[in-house]
Amino acid sequence: MKIGFIFECGPEGPDVQVCRYLVQMLDPAIEFVPSTLDNKKKIVEDCGTVARVLLDECEKIIIVWDLYPAWRERGMRPCRHEDRQAIFRSLQAENVDLSKVFFVCIQEELEAWLLADNRAVAMLKPLKRPHPVGRISRYSNPDRIRNPKTTLTRIFNRELGNSRRYVDYQHEILIAREISSFNRIRRSDSFKRFAFTTAGLVL
To answer: What is the pTM of this model?
Structure first.
């Protein structure tokens, strides 16, 4: 099966790299066809045009975006319903078959999926040898982590010092590759939706 994915990042950005890896874990038979729009505003406005093109070669489309954009203002509370309605309008404007398009809205940022498995975050071990890695928190509900990217940045700073900072496009995929099963990442409802819409798996 060939599935098209629309992400809010640059080409070969961290979301693309991580989701490609996770899709291969979910079902190696799926052909992963990514398309990227730089930010949430473009996802909302231009996803219809991209989805129409992707459906020429893909059986279905999955649109993945963060509820909170990379920038945020004090007191700002984005609305999942408003995002969905705006995306629907973009799709309808291009006469896209809505039955072939699925949404995965991540509450904060993709890093929440990675933080769900503290064993994977322990990929820091080779970077810190010969010193041991400190305790990394286990999250029962990773979707409720505020600013997951900031949380990972703090873990890197604490363990490695300021000389080895967390860089999403370098480190997200390294962490993802340490995820050996879905036992912990399935604590994220948004990841479970990703697994279901992608491969029909109920985790």
So the answer is: 0.92
